[in-house]
Every structure is written in C-alpha cells, then in structure tokens.
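Quarterly update, task 2.4: zinc ion-bound model.
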Amino acid sequence: MSHLLAPSLLSANFLNLGKDIEMINRSQADWFHLDVMDGVFVPNISFGLPVIEKIRKAAIKPFDVHLMIVDPDRYIERFRKAGADIISVHAEACTHLHRSVYLIKSSGAKAGVVLNPHSPVSQLTDIINDADMVLLMSVNPGFGGQKFIENTYLKIRELKELILKKNSAAMIEVDGGVDLNNAPLLVSEGADILVAGNTIFTSSNPEQTISLLKNF
Ligand code: DX5
Ligand code: ZN
C-alpha cells in the first residue's frame, strides 16, 4: 500500500478556512489532520469541538484528530460526535492509556497512541496490539513549522520491529517538520501516514505540494 497523507489544518488560513478545506477535498490528500491543543499539555491553544463540527460539514475525507490535551478521556465521545474518525491521545497525557484506547474504540473511532520525541518506543510493548495507529511526534508538539528531529528515523525502525514482533496491525504516522526532502525516507523506513502543515500551506501551490508529497 502506498502511504497516506494528512494535511494539518493548523497552518491553514483561518480567515478563509473554507477555501483550504475545498483545496484538500479536491487534492490527493487522504485525511484531514486536526490538532487540538489545550494550553496545558502543550504551550499553545488551537481550536476545539465547535470548529471541528463546522469543518465536518465542508470536508469530505476522514478526520484524524490529534488531541494534545490533558485527561482526554473526558472529551473522546464528544470528538467522535463532532466527526472524528481516528482519535489519537498522547501516552504522556494518559495515566490509564489502555482505558483511553478502549474508550476511543467503544466510541466507534479508530484509536491512535502518540509518543513525544523523548518517549521511547519500548513503552508501547503492552499497548501495541490494542492501538490502530501509533503517531510518532517528530517535533515537540505545540506549534507548526518546527524543525524535524532526526532521531525519528530510528524510532520508526524500532516501532516497525515491535509491530512485526507482536504481529500488530497498527499503522505508523509521523507528525512534525515533514517536507519534500525527508518524506521519501520516512516512508521507506516504514511510515504509513505523513502529516504535513507548514510544507503544504506555505508553498505557492498547496495542491501541487500535496501531490508531490503523495507521489515519489
Ligand atoms: C504540532 C502538530 C502538527 C503540526 C505539523 O504540534 O501536532 O500536526 O501542525 O505541522 P508542520 O508540518 O508545520 O510541522
Ligand atoms: Zn498533529
């Protein structure tokens, strides 16, 4: 299977969001990546439920919702109702990660587990068979447009090994600092889904950049 591409709306033009949603709709992108930040788990605040509900009315592709919030269990059902197809929670934000994963699954969404750059892949050993996806952060979460952390390649390899060893079906997503230079290597190392914000929305032709990030 060729890789999937999930543009992050964090770098879109919020003054004319409808236009960027239409561009993603007609582009070769596979999913919408939606970054929810609470100003507590990460040092930034983005957008939440009412905005996602509105975007859902215009967007025609699956919603990949990345929760950068403390105690996400409180909101899982509501994000599902707002239109989330995949809900990802940070391992660092969940004391009872197994419970959080099953709350997501029982809502009807696919469950993703996110690791910050400092969190070792080894901590996923006992959750990898329950997760539908693992999101490896390749920047410290909170902001778009940051520099890609090179250690991510090693983590993808470790994660791929763990997935194979445990016979897990989890997909691997990489988020942060993805660009046209590092995307091919990320995929050849084992990434199934690439998230990209800045690279797409600061380019002169976002739709074409999406196509370049899909076809290599
Ligand atoms: C960062 C977010 C990312 C971010 C990616 O906290 O999780 O999804 O928007 O943006 P770029 O591609 O600009 O690093
Ligand atoms: Zn994200």
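Highlight for this quarter: Residues 4-214 form a domain with the TIM Barrel fold (CATH 3.20.20.70).
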